[in-house]
Amino acid sequence: MAIMRYADIVLPLAQPLYTFAVEEGRTLCEGMAVAVPFGRSKIYTGIVWRLHDRKPERGTVKNVGRTLYPEPLLDERQRALWEWIADYYLCTLGEIMRAALPSLMKPSGCGEEEFAADEFRPARERFAALAGEALEAEGRAALLERLQRRAPRQREALEELAALAPDGEKVPRGVLRADSAALAALARKGLVALGEREAAAPAARCGESFPLPPLSPAQQRALEEIDTGFGTRRALLLHGATGSGKTEIYMHLIARTLARGGQALLLVPEIALTAQLVDRLRAVFADRVVVYHSRLTDRRRTETYLRLRRSAGGELIVGARSAIFLPMNRPELIVVDEEHDASYKQNEPAPRYNARDCAVMAARLVGCRTLLGSATPSLESYLNALGGKYGRVVLDERYGGSLPPQILVSDTLRAVKRGERRTHFNKLLLDRMAETLAGGGQAMLFQNRRGFAPYVECRECGWTARCPRCNVSLTLHKGDGRMVCHYCGHTEAIPEKCPRCRVTEPAPMGFGTEKIEQEIARHFPEARIERLDRDSATSEGAFRRIVETFARGDADILVGTQMITKGFDFGGVELVGVLNADNLLNDPDFRSAERAFQLLTQVAGRAGRRRTPGTVVIQTAEPEHPVLRQVVAGDYEAMARCQLAERKTFFYPPYARLVRLTLHHRDPVLVRRAANTLAALLRERFGRRVLGPAAPPVDRIRGEYLAVVLLKIEAGASFGRARTLLRELLARMHDDPANREYKSVTIRCNVDPQ
Ligand code: ADP
Ligand code: ZN
Ligand code: ZN
What we know:
21% strand; alpha/beta; 7-stranded parallel sheet; globular; binds adenosine-5'-diphosphate; Rossmann fold; binds zinc ion; 22 helices
């Protein structure tokens, strides 16, 4: 057998693998974390990717430093997934390492001492165990007798320990009722051993039963279809209406998985928005629920990662997209809830992966099953289901026979003409609000812009306030009275006089959630109002407080952005108002119609989730818009047919794959030239599949100018070959001496951009 003397190691950098030497006699295996010297006397955490015996051609090879964890951090399945992501999303393994491992697990770029100080130390647990004389049954009896009179507390402690672990097994101190003084006294006599060890992972408990809600006949049928479907397919789409009780079906599938000692992963779009869901899952699965997302402390995430690494199975992991990187030793089921949600895709920074698609891939790599759930599936998944790549299960009955909401489209222009518009509300919406509130019901108002006013304009000369570093207008926030850039965070005060014509004070135009909150308070001074958006939900605690206040019925109206649309189950909501559907419908993106349908259907789904059917009022200037008609009819198929036909004609996903190449530089002329060169280079090989260069809608961010080149590869062609070619061309763009002037231009690749 060859002696493996070299290790190719992944460092948490946007760089290729580096080769280090392995000293003789050292045992390393793939997936292990090691400390390695890199750069000028800096230490990095690295992952051993490959072991081999080929000496690198150039340079001196440094030795691998010490091993950081006793077991490999990545198993084979995870390494296969990383490889796939790096290949598919055109990124480096190092970039994946940055996203996949909590930072505490990978101190990097520091000196030896700092590295040692930063290194993760697992929590330790104190234990007690019988020792000496107390280990033998006979000796113990005599001891207990003797202690009976002189030290009853010690006797109790000894008795408790003997009952739990008669053969001297270690018992965590947390489990014992005995007090420390008694245990310490026994330890001094040599009858008990006290010590510390690394906290052990709880063992899998098989055959456990959970307090599951019984399913309705329709849910039961769906569950059976899922079972049949998984017999022949790895991935299934559960197309279930809002309020049909998809969560309960997930619970049944999960319970069976856990009872076998298997593990289930439930991915949710944004975990902070799903506190309610986690509560529901905890009520059934108790301490089997493991939550993982980026808002947890790094320490918690590290502990969770290591605990799962060592687990023997039996957990339900609930997490946001990054949970796809967690180790699973007994993976059996992955559920992707609200699979259409754009937040599964990480757009910035690399790896620009879509956790939903990774979940489907992961199932193939390990042989587990993936269930994609949604009331409004993405057209990609829908087409995959129609084409037989995924199985499809439909559940269109709402649970408990609650009726779908009545959706009313309210024409804003007509309301203005008839004098039936008050501030940003049509009379229809105000009337319904009044009825709802008078009857003790709750209402939700949706506006997809936060802040007070999306722009500030001079009525005299048309000047608008713009960010000095980004090509966007500034949004006025009333709370602090300042204008804010939503791209870079730049803020400034609203000018007293228009800086251009100096005639008047510029005025706030348009409306965001803050303004709606203020206006609705004027219309209904008695109502208790809460607002949910990124400005009010600044922390998880603030978020929870708002959601719980509303859920308890301690608020009558909830105003919010997209945040209020996601998966909430508020029983008292009878009315949902959409203040302005037009900016959803008129977004220039090719997905805007699909997105508008999904969003409006989801918002509408918040109304009337109990017996009384809810009402939804959608305000728009285009009441005849086909998407609105599809939303009103609740006709997903009509939307899908219509949009798929368009996508086919114009050659967009799911009929083509897109790769978006974005060039960044401070010099607008240089970025333009580089984009032209890149587009020409790509055209040599890809021909008409190359579009652009073009300026994106926001063509300057944080002082950098942007240009975009788009690559469209038809669904039938080999995307793997296209990526190989693209990689070669990008390398040429970078290495060709003729392109030296573009060295400082950054090119970012986004595969399947959302
Ligand atoms: P979805 O996620 O499909 O929109 P939910 O899972 O939130 O729907 O279910 C809607 C409501 O119906 C929730 O309040 C849920 O608790 C209730 N529900 C659904 N199925 C059941 C069931 N089998 N038993 C009891 N309650 C159920
Ligand atoms: Zn002016
Ligand atoms: Zn800005």
